[in-house]
Specification:
75 residues; 3-stranded antiparallel sheet; elongated
Length: 75
């Protein structure tokens, strides 16, 4: 069984979605309505295992690789 995240689809301006998790088999159809309230829902696609950062990646050192440390010469 896989755990999926769903969100309610806001019906009014300014309404915030409600998120919930549900275990389902991979072959089961996605939900279209919240199991308790009956509100329309959609499955949320989540990212993988990567980490998102706002900082740019480090620039290579003077020696051309990343193994030279802080400006030192590579062996």
């Amino acid at each position: 069984m896989t755990t999926y995240v769903y969100e309610t689809i806001p019906q009014k301006p300014g309404e915030k979605p409600e998120y919930f998790e549900l275990q389902q088999g991979m072959n089961e159809a996605p939900l279209t309505k919240h199991p308790k309230s009956g509100q329309p829902v959609r499955r949320v696609v989540l990212g993988g295992y990567g980490v998102l950062k706002a900082d740019p990646p480090p620039k290579p050192s003077k020696g051309g690789g990343c193994c030279c440390g802080s400006g030192g010469e590579c062996d």
